[in-house]
UniProtKB/TrEMBL annotation, chains A, B:
Name of the molecule in the record: Auxin response factor
Taxonomic placement: Eukaryota, Viridiplantae, Streptophyta, Embryophyta, Tracheophyta
Function noted in UniProt: Auxin response factors (ARFs) are transcriptional factors that bind specifically to the DNA sequence 5'-TGTCTC-3' found in the auxin-responsive promoter elements (AuxREs).
Subunit text: Homodimers and heterodimers.
Naturally occurring in which organism (per UniProt): Quercus suber (Cork oak)
Region of interest: Disordered: 465-505
PANTHER family linked: AUXIN RESPONSE FACTOR 16 (PTHR31384:SF160), AUXIN RESPONSE FACTOR 4-RELATED (PTHR31384)
Domain TF-B3: 114-216
SMART domains per record: B3
Similarity annotation: Belongs to the ARF family.
Amino acid sequence: MKEAEKSLDPQLWHACAGGMVQMPQVNSKVFYFPQGHAEHAQVHVDFSSLPRIPALILCRVGAVKFLADPETDEVFSKIRLIPLGNRNIGELDFEDDGVVGANGSENPEKPASFAKTLTQSDANNGGGFSVPRYCAETIFPRLDYTADPPVQTVIAKDVHGEVWKFRHIYRGTPRRHLLTTGWSTFVNQKKLVAGDSIVFLRAENGDLCVGIRRAKRGIGGALESPSGWNPGPGNSVSSYGGFSMFLREQENKVMRNSSPAGGNLSGKGKVRPESVIEAAALAASGQPFEVAYYPRASTPEFCVKASAVKATMRTQWCSGMRFKMAFETEDSSRISWFMGTIASVQVADPLRWPNSPWRLLQGARHAQFGISLSDLHFNNKLQPGLFPSNFQRYNMNPRTSNSIMTSNTNSNENLSCLLTIGNSSQNLEKSDNVKRHQFLLFGQPIITEQQISRSCSSDTVSQVLTGKSSSDENQDKVKFLSDGSGSTLDQQVSPEKSSSTGFSWHQGFQTTELGLDTGHCKVFMESEDVGRTLDLSVLGSYEELHRRLANMFGIERSDMLNHVVYRDATGAVKQTGDEPFSDFMKTAKRLTIFNVSSSNNIGRTWITGMRNAENGLDASNKTGPLSIFA
Amino acid sequence: MKEAEKSLDPQLWHACAGGMVQMPQVNSKVFYFPQGHAEHAQVHVDFSSLPRIPALILCRVGAVKFLADPETDEVFSKIRLIPLGNRNIGELDFEDDGVVGANGSENPEKPASFAKTLTQSDANNGGGFSVPRYCAETIFPRLDYTADPPVQTVIAKDVHGEVWKFRHIYRGTPRRHLLTTGWSTFVNQKKLVAGDSIVFLRAENGDLCVGIRRAKRGIGGALESPSGWNPGPGNSVSSYGGFSMFLREQENKVMRNSSPAGGNLSGKGKVRPESVIEAAALAASGQPFEVAYYPRASTPEFCVKASAVKATMRTQWCSGMRFKMAFETEDSSRISWFMGTIASVQVADPLRWPNSPWRLLQGARHAQFGISLSDLHFNNKLQPGLFPSNFQRYNMNPRTSNSIMTSNTNSNENLSCLLTIGNSSQNLEKSDNVKRHQFLLFGQPIITEQQISRSCSSDTVSQVLTGKSSSDENQDKVKFLSDGSGSTLDQQVSPEKSSSTGFSWHQGFQTTELGLDTGHCKVFMESEDVGRTLDLSVLGSYEELHRRLANMFGIERSDMLNHVVYRDATGAVKQTGDEPFSDFMKTAKRLTIFNVSSSNNIGRTWITGMRNAENGLDASNKTGPLSIFA
DNA sequence: TTGTCGGCGCCTTGCCGACAA
DNA sequence: TTGTCGGCAAGGCGCCGACAA
């Protein structure tokens, strides 16, 4: 990759980055969080080769470059930081820490811009683009309405300065603004799909600019990204399933036409762990360094303006406290607020970073939503009142820890709702103070530890899934839980309808993280959210297995044939019967029974499973033998 | 790039590599030529950081991996070599140097295979593939001729093991074999264009395999590759021009659909110079090393079996000797022979590699044609009888030197025919023993030094262009010529018709290599083959320049306006008048006057020029200030 | 106001035999 | 024997207004 390093218009950059993204000004002071930088790399960064590094390092901003990926158009920046020495935080002067906000540089005027999330119709192959009236009238060049129909050619420059031409027409009854000719070329070239956003911006010199913000892609999002958004239920299984199929087909198309390297639109690997190590080492030794920051990467900022850090450090967060967080509806530039109650306070990684305030500040912009509001549009029925509960679905990876915390709290208190799945009943037996109520939610058995905290959501149910396993957790996990709080947090909420698909992914992720001993196998029904654990070592044949599964799920044994697939430790997906039972017994790690009735559904889920199988292979490098299946 | 490193079927590998490619057997002995390795990298490799390295190093072959590029399907191999110490060549035992030939491994049976160069119709979007009868009947599965029409699905595996399905039908009047459904998908996926070849092979296990051999792409082929083939004249200017345009349009299409990285189908940069340095250093120090070898890269082998080297070293090549070389018609597996007379013998790089036999052996497979016969198909009218003269057009890069040589010969003797161009008349004045006959060939003045050597070709005229410049050659060149032979060889033949375009490219290349002092500028007419040198420092204005040019070429001065373009030292292409004359005078390196009459021609040539301008930028890294223009 | 749909025309894709090299 | 061409049909692409949320 050549370092063209051509800084683009900061206004366009900010428009693409999103309204909540702020960049520190040159010569301002910021705190650099190596931990946050590591999270930004979205892979595990092993700091063990370095001496202990401070959790946060005060730096002066030497330079900021506004850049865009030449392939994906994703905006990112390179920030040069000069450490200011290892003085006590209290002694420091935080005054001149100006921040370049959404309005770009020192110019207080926000340029006229408009963002729209692409609908299916917008992204369809045979279609045009429905231009919202506001955009057409305030951003686009003035149309001559005396013509019939009024039509013009709109010329827009992208982040690379490349020029795109669109036919802009005002037609139909009732009249509406549309981009027709040229639009589908743009969609194809930029490989846009429904859910991605497009930003139109009228620059100061009058040029019309166009930028894109890609939706977080990939079904395995929750698997790939520690802070990834778990799309979850919402508008029903079928609609989501259909959408994921669409994505896959698109992706295939894209992959066939482009090199494998070019197909990676979803990020990851943009910041390499070596870069983090290098930066952290330089920072700790007081030498200038440069970091790349991808504002769309859904991880919290790791260069936070010094005054904000200082202000937030004054607050002692503890569970039970109410809090309020700003986030922006990206396509309309309004600020929305989310209010909630702090559920748990916990140091993210007490071994490596003791007393680190990282993600404690979830105020000083760690509280910012890493995911953009546009993601919420997957839920077509979404209403403002649902935001809080949706936010709770934000997937808090146990590895990267909880977002809200102090250091001396019982984390079992104030949890909204514990939905225990899989083999976690073992945990419950250990924590003797929990009450067990079994009830059905959307037809699925749910075990709660506490009643719903009404403060989170007024008309929906929110649950927190405990993903913790007891004795069979892997080494990594043991370390992480060693602070004794005894509960790995992971939140999931189903606001209106439950989606088995969504849940299964989630569970797949958890299983990935937890791992299982040989002989034990997770079993899932395609249509159900809840998995069970089965000890294969007590079984002697496929017939016995099928009988057992038939009993377990109350279905006909004959229906089992050709409907049970599993993944083995190597990641291969097989059907029962593919290999001798003795081999199956040893290697099967996750087993899924497909619905017998709907053949359509089977096809779809099978493909989904294959997809996750790929992700599973990746993940296995990190956590050893595992099994994922949706 | 991940090292999948999955060795593919050696038979398929050899079928794709071409019939002339031989790979050394494991445990056999070969000589490793660092010089050849460097040429293989196709960029300048600077050995100056290393101590002096032997010109050839005897090695044992540790391992051979047969691989294929995951993106382009280009076959290559990795050869592990273990140096056998620095003993005197004469003392060595060359016995067990078995070679894996085209028939693959030790198996003496050559598998049934067939290669065909794609015609326009084959590569057209809306078309199928005309299967030569031989291929259909001996390679494809047997067709049921009782059906009407006979039809079957042919399934073939590519180098990655990926399966492709083609509808194979025998229809039409007269009957012919065709691949229809599935073919265009294959063409698109593999990004094949007319001129590329496809190889069908029936493997030993009965599987049908399909491989591809890409034609050397890009108009600047002769510029990019030291041993590149100069397509030259042939079936008229317009047909060639048309074809090159076609290539360009195809390329654009490809580029739009694929990432920039994926667009590089033409090679270059496959072997990085660092790898060469590393290998050479390890080889010199007697440590095992690995080299990658791209048999389609058109550079001579640099791992040559030891016995062949030894045998050839016995021969004292000198000019005037007759020689005979084998090469294969790749699509029919016949061996053809080329016979010629040695024109000049010269050490390739006497400073860096004194007494190196590199390219002394263009016998021991250095004489092999680096280019495939398929390149000759650009000349549609090509007949077997023309091969010799066509071969003479093979572009012998002065840098990489002449292929046939000894060290004590007057290189001015026995030259087939010297066509002196540009400012080389100065040379002639220095070599007082040459006779000067001026005559016209295809309307161009030609100065011969000797009569045509009839032995080269019976019905065509062959010439050797002397590309030598006198006092204005650059440092690099001076070094190269320092052995005193005083003649840089470059051969060019126009068998039937002359193409100004072809000639111009050739000249462009020569000018590149030779370089010019500041102030001196090469001047070319678009329609002419012959360039002149102009001392810009004696001119004072654009007007004076135009007047001078008008005189020089006998055209109207007014016609000059807007028809003179030039390239400066940075590689930029400009029109006269774009910058102040004083700047122009200092930087212009090559100047071209376009035909005024035919606007069509101008357009075409302009595009060609731009293309070459790009190549010029690359080349400038190697030779300093230069000027290329076609 | 704008997202989605069916209608429909145009243009590309791709299969065919004719024809000629 | 096989390369190229025009014919032609199918189907995808893409523009349109209708309709409804």
